[in-house]
Design a protein that fits this description.
With 142 residues, this protein is α+β, with helices and mostly antiparallel strands. 26% of the residues lie in helices and 39% in strands.
Length: 142
């Protein structure tokens, strides 16, 4: 078993024991199991999957009857060692926090905003693009 902790600037999402975690690395997904080689790596916006511990119920964490629980994380870093994974990311969302209609409306608003930006608004364009990516990943949780 490994201990997984997910932290954003706004909150500590959770700290739980799990069988494994699959993280969205910059070069693709990678799975962390007990005994993993220590590593510090960058993460991209994507889905982090958590494999439920066998024959146990994690106190205070609802896997909703599933063996795998998925959350959205925004860009960040993961520090991994043999028994721990700490994810520090710009943002995260649990499936219960996602409002499908709101996310779809946000994506449309951001697309409209991007169409109205000029070439010199590169920073605003990149921010809107990152927000669209986050909203799209949140919708993929559903």
């Amino acid at each position: 078993m490994i201990e997984l902790e997910i932290v954003t600037p706004e909150r500590r999402l959770f700290k739980i024991q799990c069988e494994a975690a699959v993280l969205p690395g910059l070069d693709g997904e990678f799975e962390v199991l007990e005994g993993h080689t220590p590593v510090l790596t960058a993460l991209k916006t994507g889905i982090l999957s958590i494999k439920k511990p066998k024959n146990t119920e994690e106190e205070g964490f609802d896997f909703a009857g599933n063996d795998i629980y998925r959350i959205m994380i925004a860009d960040g870093f993961a520090e991994v060692d043999a028994h721990h994974v700490t994810v520090i990311c710009e943002g995260a969302a649990l499936p219960s926090e996602v409002n499908t209609e709101s996310e779809r409306a946000l994506i449309q608003q951001l697309h409209d905003k991007m169409k109205s930006l000029s070439a010199k608004d590169e920073k605003e364009f990149n921010i809107a693009q990152a927000e669209i990516e986050r909203a799209t990943v949140k919708l993929a949780l559903m």
